[in-house]
Amino acid sequence: MAYDYEKSIRPGKLPHIWCPGCGHGIVMKGLIRAMDACNLDRAKTSIVSGIGCASRLPGYMDACTLHTAHGRAAAFATGVKLANPEMTVIVCGGDGDGTAIGGNHFIHACRRNIDMTYVIMNNYIYGMTGGQFSPCTPTGHKASTTPYGNPDPIFDISKLAIGAGATFVARTTAFHATQIDKLIAEGIKHKGMAVIEVLDDCPTTYGRRNKFRSVVDMMKRLKDIAVPVQAAAKMTAEQLEGKVLTGVLYKEDKPEYCEMYQKVIERAQGAKS
Amino acid sequence: MAKKVALMQGNEACAHGAVYAGCNFFGGYPITPSTEVAEVLANELPKVGGKFIQMEDEIGAMAAVIGAALTGAKALTATSGPGVSLKQELIGYACIAETPCVIVNVMRGGPSTGMPTGPGQSDVMQARWGTHGDHAAIALVPASCQEIFSETVRAFNLAEKFRMPVQVLFDEIVGHMRERVEFPEPGELEVIDRAPVTVSPAEYKPYDASKGDVPPLAAFGSGYKFHVTGLNKAADGFPTTKAELVDAEERRQISKVMDRADEIEKNEEYQTQDAEVVIWAYGSTARSARYAVNELRKAGVKAGLFRPLTLWPFPEKRTAALAQQAKAIVVAEMNLGQMIYEVERVAKGACNVAGVFRVDGEPINPGQIMDKVKEVL
Q1: Nearest C-alpha of chain A: how many angstroms from B237?
Q2: What is the pLDDT of residues A32-56, one digit of tens each?
Q3: Does residue B140 contact residue B174 with C-beta atoms inside 8 Å?
Q4: Contacting residues of A for B60, CB less than 8 Å apart
Q5: What is the ipTM, given to two decimal places?
Q6: Contact in structure between A91 and A97 (CB atoms under 8 Å)
Q7: Are B150 and B14 within 8 A, CB to CB?
Q8: Can you name the residues that pair with B105 across neighbouring β-strands?
Q9: How far apart are CA A96 and CA A5, in angstroms?
Q10: A63, A265, A269 member nearest B225 (Cβ)
Q11: pLDDT computed for residue A249 by the predictor
């Protein structure tokens, strides 16, 4: 029997706004499977986003959903989680929202190692506003604001998250649909800041300008560039040129922020430290 | 048992007032001259099981406050002029998403960085019109340390009652002035908690105004699943662009405040009964104005003081009545003229309106006010 996604979707909220060929729907289905795998109580789950195509995701989900201002999802989510650590907090959004305008909140949520799962859908572009370049648009590629090719170097989101202190960092692509739920579920189960980067595609505002003739071409590229982290260990630098590592890239056990703060409360209330 | 009494700064009184009101979440970012509010709450909140977080920036602080408030927390941030400017987008978010929270602005001078340790009253229009779009605003302007305590409590009450952000503005002088503060006993000051949700999770709509213009807000994590967004939305919280729904929501969010402005309004009047000249002043400036009234009365001038504690909604009725009664209103404020425009707006030419302004980091002194009063009479 086909997987019942509808039970997790708010009645009457579909069809979604995403363009045909966009990978966000694949990620949303992955998130639903991950939430089911973790047996989450949706009334105690908050899904938080900022602004952009990917940030519309929470609206479809049957949970405590919070669609905030551009770039601020991680900061709103920090307030939700710290005020009520019983909540499972999942943040989702795009690359521009998370690493440009929201870059500061993103790195500091990683630094705090607060217990949330940040699913960042990296489609290399600002889709909703019409295809302006983001910090993840490949150098030299075209966007509506880089008509002669993008001069900016890019962020490697996963490396950024590891460097900033996230204690679970994983990457996959919209092509690798069956890996998405497994990594998100692992992130949800991880106590601390989990970042799951999903390389995604935007055929409408990125693919069209960058000579991807079809969605299939874009998906094929995602398939071709992905190298599982285990396989990469046996590959040479030349073989890895232009490739992207996928799978669990980093995992560490470190004190989680809300637990640390609970100790502050105990100290303030006179418990022996 | 004698009441707890302490000599403390206005900023410290603000923090203690917040705890009295039931504040259990503070999200902030350090900025002079507001820092003592954060420092005291970092100390006090964990003692009562509350949470204090110093965020990475002003915007993050406001975001965390709104996130916490949506879980049912009574949440506060404290900042100063430039910090409030940074928070403005999210203050607007709290308005449209109808999220109760309190923003304390210890006002300093100047646009931009200005004078970080100098006083100002130049954010009074920022409190009204700072964020984008049409919205109502509630802003309180205490003038003493004791009053900062009680007005901070009132700010939380108004935030919960009207389900919206409320700002408390005090200038650096009152923020850093040390005065005797008497701690009220529990129950002595009214503390209003969030209205409970009376419908089942299945029936709950976060913006359903069919039973009143302030729909109850459920807490995330309490069994209610709902959607919150900064977009214009329908009663169920989901975005809509339907003209009639957008229009009705925008108007309700303004009228819920303006229709009940009388409940929010709070003023103090001193010697206004027979006043021929009324000094209209707030915050620390009102303290100089009160001194000026006494001196003027001794000199035979029928002077009075009108001191708003609620700056927004603007005290229209009393200001208009005083304009009818007096020959002149002298507005004294530590800026180059902001609230004077509101006074002129409601006076409608019924009396002379003159201003005493100062932006050099020094307080307005009684002599300046007296000189202006003599000039206009």
Answers
A1: 10
A2: 999 999 999 999 999 999 999 999 9
A3: no
A4: 72, 75, 78, 104-105, 108
A5: 0.97
A6: no
A7: no
A8: B79, B169
A9: 28
A10: A63
A11: 98
Using DSSP bridges, classify how beta strands B310-312 and B139-140 pair: parallel, antiparallel or unpaired: antiparallel
Quote the tokens at residue A55: 């940030």
Res. B3 pLDDT band, cuts 50 70 90: confident
Please, what's the b/e burial string for B12-24 (b: 16 or more CB within 10 A of its CB; e: otherwise)? bbbbbbbbbbbbb
pLDDT per residue as tens digits for the range A235-262: 999 999 999 999 999 999 999 999 999 9
Write the single-letter amino acid at A42: R
pLDDT digits (tens, 9 = 90+) for B300-357: 999 999 999 999 999 999 999 999 999 999 999 999 999 999 999 999 999 999 999 9
pLDDT band at B136 (very low <50, low <70, confident <90, very high): very high
CB atoms within 10 A of CB B187: 7
DSSP-derived secondary structure letter, A53: S
pLDDT digits over A111-131, tens only?
A: 999 999 999 999 999 999 999
Residue of A13, A48, A57, A80 to mutate when probing chain B, most B C-beta within 10 A: A80
Residues of chain A with Cβ-Cβ distance to B43 below 8 Å are: 268
Instruction: Report chain B residues whose CB lies below 8 A from the CB of A64.
Output: 220-221, 224-226
Query: Which of B227, B231, B236 would best serve as a mutation to test chain A binding (most A beta carbons within 10 A)?
Result: B227
CA B164 to chain centre: 12
What is the separation of C-alpha B138 from the centre of its chain, rounded to a whole number of angstroms? Answer: 6
Structure tokens at B318: 């009393």
Nearest Cα neighbor of B333 from B295, B372, B303, B276 is B372
**How many angstroms separate the CA of residue B200 from the nearest CA in chain A?**
13
Write the secondary structure of B84-143 as one string of H (helix), E (strand) and C (coil): HHHHHHHHHHHHHCCCCEEEEEEEEECCCCCEEEEECCCCHHHHHHCCCCCCCCCEECCC
Tens-place pLDDT, residues B11-69: 999 999 999 999 999 999 999 999 999 999 999 999 999 999 999 999 999 999 999 99
Q: Which of A75, A83, A108 sits opposite B71 (nearest CB)?
A: A83
The pTM of this model reads: 0.98
With CB atoms and an 8 Å threshold, state whether B49 touches A64: no
Task: Give the number of other CB atoms < 10 A from CB of residue B196.
Answer: 8
Q: How far is B109 from chain A, CA to nearest CA, in Å?
A: 28
- Which token pair is A219? 């998906």
From chain A, the residues in CB contact with B100 under 8 A are none
